[in-house]
Design brief:
This protein has 294 residues and is α/β, with parallel strands linked by helices. It folds into three domains: 3-100 and 195-215, D-Maltodextrin-Binding Protein, domain 2; 106-182, 3-Layer(aba) Sandwich (D-Maltodextrin-Binding Protein, domain 2), CATH 3.40.190; 226-290, Double Stranded RNA Binding Domain (2-Layer Sandwich), CATH 3.30.160.40. The chain contains nine helices and 13 strands. α8 runs parallel beside α9 (278-290). The longest helix has 17 residues, at 13-29. The model has no long low-confidence stretch (mean pLDDT 94).
C-alpha cells in the first residue's frame, strides 16, 4: 500500500536536497513511501537585506514550515538543526528524528585563515563565527553576508574569505570550494550544525514511528546536549555562542563550547553523560558567569 508523505521545506537548493535526503532514508525502510515536497517561503528567505538577528534571529527559517505541518498542509517538516530555536517545538509538534549527521565544521571559501593579509575582509552573517575569528585575528575586517549558499559563493571579497558550513558545501557537491575546513578547536560550530531535524504532528503516531526508524540515536543525543547548552543561555543566532558534542579519543562524550561576552571570550571542553543534558546546561552557566552575562 502506497503511503504519501508531504514534506515541508524551504525552497533553496540545499533545503530541497535535505528534504529529499530524508525522503530517501524513509524509502530505504519502506519502498512504498512516496514523497511530495511542499515548498514554503520563510521570513528568513524574504528578508535578506538585514542581519538575521534583526528579523528574529533563530527561528526565522522554521516558523512558517512548522505552521504548514500544524495546519495539515504537510506531514513532515525538515530543517537544518542549527536553525531550530533551542526551546521545545511549538505545541502540537514533536522533534521526531535527527538522522545521521553530516560534517559539523565551518569552512573558509577564498583564502585560508593564515593566508589572509592584515585587514583582509571576511564576510559572515554569524556573530558566533565573527567572534571566534576576531579572537584569533583581531586585524580582520568583517562584513555581513546573507543569502543561500550559491549566492554567498558569488560574494567572496577580493583577497578575503566567506564562512559557510562544510556540510552545505558537501551536500551541494561544492566541497572543492573550501580553502580551509576549520577544526572544532579553532571554530566551535553552531549548535546542531551539520545535522537535520525532522518534525511531525504529535497527533500522528504512524509518522512518528516512521521517522523514529531513520534516527541516529547518538547524533540525537549530541544535538540534544548542544541544544541544552544554548537553551540555558536563552540565545540563538544573535548570541556569539557555539557548542559541539562528539566522542573523544577514548570513546567518551565530550562537549566543546564557546561563548563571547562584552570583554571576554570563554572556551571549555567537558566530558559527560550522553543522556543527561544537565551538565551541558551547567557549562552554559559557567560560561555566562565567565564572560559577564550571568
Amino acid at each position: 500500500m502506497t503511503v504519501r508523505l508531504r514534506v515541508a521545506t524551504r525552497g533553496s537548493r540545499l533545503a530541497q536536497w535535505q528534504a529529499n535526503a530524508v525522503g530517501d532514508l524513509l524509502r530505504s525502510g519502506d519502498p512504498h513511501i512516496e514523497i511530495d515536497l511542499v515548498v514554503v517561503t520563510t521570513t528568513g528567505d524574504t528578508r535578506t537585506d538585514v542581519p538575521l538577528h534583526s528579523v528574529g534571529g533563530q527561528g526565522v527559517f522554521v516558523r512558517e514550515i512548522q505552521e504548514a505541518v500544524l495546519a495539515g498542509e504537510a506531514d513532515i517538516a525538515v530543517h537544518s538543526a542549527k536553525d531550530l530555536p533551542s526551546s521545545p517545538p511549538p505545541e502540537g509538534l514533536v522533534l521526531a528524528a535527527v538522522p545521521p549527521r553530516g560534517d559539523p565544521r565551518d569552512a573558509l571559501v577564498g583564502h585560508r585563515l593564515e593566508d589572509l593579509a592584515p585587514g583582509a575582509t571576511v564576510a559572515t552573517g554569524s556573530v558566533r563565527r565573527q567572534a571566534q575569528l576576531a579572537a584569533r585575528r583581531p586585524d580582520l575586517t568583517f562584513i555581513d553576508l546573507r543569502g543561500n549558499v550559491d549566492t554567498r559563493l558569488t560574494k567572496v571579497p577580493e583577497g578575503g574569505a566567506i564562512v559557510v558550513a562544510q556540510a552545505a558545501l558537501e551536500r551541494l557537491g561544492l566541497a572543492d570550494r573550501a580553502a580551509e575546513v576549520l577544526g572544532v578547536s579553532t571554530m566551535v560550530p553552531q549548535v546542531g550544525q551539520g545535522a537535520l531535524a525532522v518534525e511531525c504532528r504529535a497527533s500522528d503516531p504512524a509518522t512518528q514511528r516512521r521517522l523514529g526508524a531513520i534516527q541516529s540515536a547518538v547524533d540525537r543525543g549530541f544535538v540534544d546536549l548542544e541544544r541544552a547548552f544554548l537553551a540555558q543561555l536563552g540565545g540563538g543566532c544573535d548570541l556569539p555562542a557555539g557548542a559541539h558534542a562528539r566522542l573523544d579519543a577514548d570513546g567518551q562524550v565530550e562537549l566543546h563550547a564557546f561563548l563571547a561576552g562584552p570583554a571576554e571570550v570563554w572556551r571549555a571542553r567537558r566530558n559527560g553523560d550522553l543522556h543527561d543534558p544537565s551538565w551541558a546546561a551547567a557549562m552554559a552557566r559557567e560560561g555566562a558567569a565567565a564572560v559577564g552575562l550571568a
